[in-house]
Amino acid sequence: MKHAHIIGWGHYFPPRELSNDEISKVVDTSDEWIQARTGIASRHIVETETTTQMAFEAAARAIAIADISPSEVDLVIVATSTPENMFPSTASQVQALLGADSAGAFDLSAACSGFVYGLDMATQAIKTGAVRTAVVIGAEKMSRVLDWDDRGTCILFGDGAGAVVLQGSNIPGGVMASMLRSDGSGGNVLSLPAVYENPVPFLNGSGPKKGENRNVIDMEGRQVFRFATRVIPQIVNEVIEQAGIAIEDVALIVPHQANTRIIESAAKKLGINPNRFFLNVNHAGNTSAASIPIALCEAVQAGRLKPNDIVIFVGFGGGLTWAASVIRWDAGPNYQDNPGIARMRYGLNRYRMRYRQLHRSVMARIGGSPTPNARLKDADKKK
Ligand code: UT7
User: Fold this and answer.
1) Structural domain spans, the chain
2) Which residues contact 80 (CB under 8 A, 6 or more apart)?
3) Cβ(58) to ligand 1 under 6 A?
4) Ligand 1, from 145, 154, 188, 222: best to mutate by most atoms within 8 Å of Cβ?
5) Which tens digit of pLDDT belongs to each residue from 135-193?
6) With 90 as the cut, is the pLDDT of residue 7 above it?
7) What are the backbone angles phi and psi of residue 228, rounded to the nearest 5°?
8) How far is the C-alpha of 238 from the C-alpha of 70, rounded, in Å?
9) The domain 3-194+212-342: what is its CATH number?
């Protein structure tokens, strides 16, 4: 049976940092309150960057560390709740920017658990042998879906992207177990409307009126807090049992980064020291689906993972969803930053994308590719 190994990892933060003091100029809050109640001091926010660009940057870095060619990638999954479009998917755009010409690509919606869901989907695809190499990305521009008048939510979130490259091998190790959970009955405690529903002229009075439906996060903070502190210890215990290991065997837990107090409470319930959890919420805030792969990269950079260590990823969030994975960290330490040649190739990909778009529109104008319907009509006329 094939095993899915993490062979590359990368992350991207937009350069603009936003401090608590800056936020306190637009809502009634303070650096002291935010740090004490959440552990967050600052977060990064996009100025001009898109979710697609951040996802691409993280993926390109992960591919450089994996030391593979983008043409080896069979599958690109982007976990995001803040795509530029419902379609084309962020994943398809990233696939084209990478020049991953043999890959399938799709976006996945499971809020802050999305990265762990994506990791499991890719692992299952690798285990069947259908896919050999997959890139799993979490990418978010949360700053664009916040109500900046709501101090209960706008202080929490940040932007960024993280990615891993998974590759199949017959050598045991890599992703040892995964568990995905959902409870849709709690959907109302943490939500973000996906589509602005335009009034439909034929349907009198049906649907929201203009301006009624704002695409911002709505959250019952205390309920989400209680949910998170309940499910983290529960799913961690379940997934280690499935992997056939004990909590003492776990070197590090990389949780979804939402609130330091949530992690402290979960550690207490698990009976372990909170420093067994890796935390970067202090400077990243909550980057939803991007938070676990970003934290993983920072944990590797900080030397918190050694070869053969066992690491757990645990995510929780909107849906409600929660998920966990146990991974044997057997990736070779192959730290090379983006070699110039790869960057050049990605630059050329942008031109290639534009060339293909132009080619498609020229062909459409000169009637080079009629639809099957048009072809049938032509055939009918000739009869
Ligand atoms: O990815 C998963 C997403 N979400 C989460 O993980 C969030 C989980 N929840 C939390 O992290 C916490 O519930 C929050 C940080 C959101 C809120 O902290 P809390 O300790 O649960 O505060 P609270 O909602 O119980 O509010 C306590 C007080 C209230 O004032 P009163 O009614 O006691 O006078 C709030 O109005 O704190 C007030 N408050 C604030 N004060 C200053 C709420 N937000 C703020 C704020 N600054 N930003």
Assistant:
1) 3-194+212-342
2) 51, 55, 90, 107, 108, 109, 114, 138, 139, 140, 288, 289
3) no
4) 222
5) 999 999 999 999 999 999 999 999 999 999 999 999 999 999 999 999 999 999 999 99
6) yes
7) -65, -45
8) 36
9) 3.40.47.10
